[in-house]
């Protein structure tokens, strides 16, 4: 039985606990705040109630909560874990100190994975005695409803550790993507950043309004990207496949990319314009309600896609 | 009853014919190639058969084909049309000549819309007597399964024409997005271009392989963008909404955008690497089969999303 320790039980940590338990793993959850651990059982039960109608609480929704244990003692939480999923604050000094503690306390064979989206393993794990067992396993919020996990090992991470982490995430039902080299933002946030930059620019310069921008993605690009990536998309948009597409349209796309916005698009004016468009939807209550809506849609979409059982090109032998 | 004329009955033109007829409109289809018109009835019947199981052939699938008429005479096809949807070749001189013909032959009140993805209305309609009734209505392939239509008027287009085109597309069940100023690539292809540029760069420089790149979008970003755009996505990723998000994470995103690839990423080597990843999936037969798979997934996803009836933020009064 795979044993998981969750370190930090905020929104992301609780979602990790849920998804590992959903897969049948045993999960122990530690957090420095006792009240967070006190609420854990109720939070997990609420997640089960919200996801089960879409088939997203696993084969045994009733037993899920029983496989998660709140554990106020860090050392006890770590004992016997195959993998520690750290989901603490995104500050380098905090993360370094925490990883030093984890490395000192965890069994020698335990993988130490961070949910960090902004810090690289080479920054927060360098110099630790157990540096070779450290890596980033970056999820998307919320991990139990969006399956990708970006695995980013440091140059000093043992490749066997990376491979074992990949297997554990895959066994938990996630889709692990292994980065071969570290880069700021990994893959997902780099792609999100270029979309945000060009979107903010198109809005600020008056080409389109916020609703039109969102509609273009939501009723356009996003329809394809929900079940195939941008590379497969272009492979199907020319009679001879992706290479043919890039021969036919590469110059046009290069011209568009050449004139695209970069960091200069992130202006206070652009932020104000976008903020204004969501004026009635940015109070804490409104955002919480809409996050619940989003999570319901994500669960429903996950259920829909699981039911399609379409062939995954990533599993085709000829790819 | 809305009357539509389709000029050019390739893949895109046939899809337009289908979707207008699905909405109950009367559609006449003209194409310079007689064999294309001969096959039209069979093509439409096949589209009905493929989409009806997902509820994407409209309320009257049996009657859909009867509302489409192949018309070998251009002048007859145009007569009485509210809107002409031109879907011919993407060459400026061809498009200019065709629009001159359409403008000379169509009734004065008819809107002349082009499906062009690469040419702007100000380029192909400038100087025509009826320039004010010309615009671009750019669809995504295939339009009957991906609802967005980018409406891009020229500076000389009558705003009342733009508004009437918007109403017609919306009544046909599409999601029209009106651009306020012309720009190469409109919105959708500009966003696609920056994603392709950074994707090709991340693959070429060895950060991730093609499958990993596609998995990151398909099992990550695309899960959210299938039902909400990038602006609403960030509005839900900070406790104070989009403006708060940009204050907290804008600098990080700007740094990622600053170091992102642009046109230099479209190298022959990158094209070869992507082509290689799809080696077994790039024969004409394999691509056709996979396009059919894609269209089935798009139809199923459209059916799923229609069934969700989630509140559209673009229709909220407070946005």
Automatic annotation (TrEMBL), chains A, B:
<protein>
    <submittedName>
        <fullName>3-hydroxyacyl-CoA dehydrogenase</fullName>
    </submittedName>
</protein>
<dbReference type="Pfam" id="PF02737">
    <property type="entry name" value="3HCDH_N"/>
</dbReference>
<dbReference type="InterPro" id="IPR036291">
    <property type="entry name" value="NAD(P)-bd_dom_sf"/>
</dbReference>
<dbReference type="InterPro" id="IPR008927">
    <property type="entry name" value="6-PGluconate_DH-like_C_sf"/>
</dbReference>
<dbReference type="GO" id="GO:0070403">
    <property type="term" value="F:NAD+ binding"/>
</dbReference>
<dbReference type="Pfam" id="PF00725">
    <property type="entry name" value="3HCDH"/>
</dbReference>
<dbReference type="GO" id="GO:0006631">
    <property type="term" value="P:fatty acid metabolic process"/>
</dbReference>
<dbReference type="InterPro" id="IPR006176">
    <property type="entry name" value="3-OHacyl-CoA_DH_NAD-bd"/>
</dbReference>
<comment type="similarity">
    <text>Belongs to the 3-hydroxyacyl-CoA dehydrogenase family.</text>
</comment>
<keyword id="KW-0560">Oxidoreductase</keyword>
<feature type="domain" description="3-hydroxyacyl-CoA dehydrogenase C-terminal">
    <location>
        <begin position="185"/>
        <end position="250"/>
    </location>
</feature>
<feature type="domain" description="3-hydroxyacyl-CoA dehydrogenase NAD binding">
    <location>
        <begin position="4"/>
        <end position="180"/>
    </location>
</feature>
<dbReference type="GO" id="GO:0050104">
    <property type="term" value="F:L-gulonate 3-dehydrogenase activity"/>
</dbReference>
<dbReference type="InterPro" id="IPR013328">
    <property type="entry name" value="6PGD_dom2"/>
</dbReference>
<dbReference type="InterPro" id="IPR006108">
    <property type="entry name" value="3HC_DH_C"/>
</dbReference>
């Amino acid at each position: 039985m795979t044993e998981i320790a969750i370190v930090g039980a905020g929104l992301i940590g609780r979602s990790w606990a849920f998804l590992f338990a959903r897969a049948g793993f045993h999960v122990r959850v530690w957090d420095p705040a006792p009240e967070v651990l006190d609420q854990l059982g109720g939070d997990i039960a609420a997640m089960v109630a919200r996801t089960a109608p879409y088939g997203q609480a696993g084969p045994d929704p009733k037993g899920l909560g029983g496989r998660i244990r709140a554990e106020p003692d860090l050392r006890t939480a770590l004992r016997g874990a195959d993998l520690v999923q750290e989901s603490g604050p995104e500050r380098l000094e905090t993360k370094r100190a925490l990883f030093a503690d984890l490395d000192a306390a965890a069994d020698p064979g335990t993988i130490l994975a961070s949910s960090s989206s902004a810090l690289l393993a080479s920054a927060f794990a360098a110099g630790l005695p157990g540096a070779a067992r450290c890596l980033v396993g970056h999820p998307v919020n919320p991990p139990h409803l969006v399956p990708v996990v970006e695995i980013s090992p440091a140059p000093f991470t043992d490749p066997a550790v990376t491979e074992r982490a990949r297997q554990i995430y895959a066994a938990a039902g996630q889709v692990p993507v292994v980065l071969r080299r570290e880069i700021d933002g990994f893959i997902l946030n780099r792609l999100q950043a270029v979309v945000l930059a060009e979107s903010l620019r198109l809005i600020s310069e008056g080409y389109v309004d916020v609703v039109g921008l969102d509609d273009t993605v939501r009723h356009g690009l996003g329809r394809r990207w929900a079940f195939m990536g941008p590379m497969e998309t272009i492979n199907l948009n020319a009679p001879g496949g992706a290479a043919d597409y890039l021969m036919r349209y590469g110059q046009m796309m290069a011209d568009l990319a050449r004139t695209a916005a970069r960091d200069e698009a992130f202006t206070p004016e652009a932020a104000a314009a976008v903020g204004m468009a969501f004026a009635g939807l940015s109070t804490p209550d409104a955002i919480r309600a809409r996050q619940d809506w989003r999570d319901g849609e994500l669960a429903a979409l996950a259920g829909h896609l699981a039911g399609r059982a379409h062939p995954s090109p990533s599993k085709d032998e000829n790819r």
